Amino acid sequence: MNIEIFAPARILSAGTDGGSAKPELEWWKRNISLLRESGMDVQIYTLDTDAIAYAAHAGVADLLLAEGGGVLPATFIDGKLTAKRRYLSAAELEREAAVRGVRFTSGEKVTDSM
User: Fold this and answer.
1) CA distance 88 to 74
2) Under DSSP, is residue 24 helix (H, G, I), strand (E, B) or coil?
3) CB 104 within 8 A of CB 32
4) 68-109: pLDDT as tens digits
5) Sheet holding 74-77, edge to edge
6) 13-17, 41-45, 75-79, range with the lowest pLDDT
7) What distance in Å separates the CA atoms of residue 84 and residue 26, rounded to the nearest whole number?
8) For residues 103 and 72, what is the distance between their CA atoms, to the nearest angstrom?
9) CA 73 to mean position of chain CA atoms
């Protein structure tokens, strides 16, 4: 299971712009080892440091051309757009993993607003 998260610029650098990273992305960052141990290949890209990845990924490039930067964050699982303008919740990730036969239980609630 290949997960690619394309985040807006500076979202991964909490505090560098006077703000902080979104709680949803903090959950992904805290649990990336657990996700990988469960058999998932997880990549998190941020626009200001990984611009080449955005241009090289046809789905992201097309999405940005069609809808602009406001479409970020965008999540692709196995090459398919799974979420845009938000991050997947832990529950959504568990469902996506189950569909693909990957056992994963987050055991953690991110936020109710996701």
Assistant:
1) 9
2) helix
3) no
4) 999 999 999 999 999 999 988 888 888 888 888 887 776 654
5) 41-46, 2-7, 74-77, 80-84
6) 13-17
7) 17
8) 28
9) 7
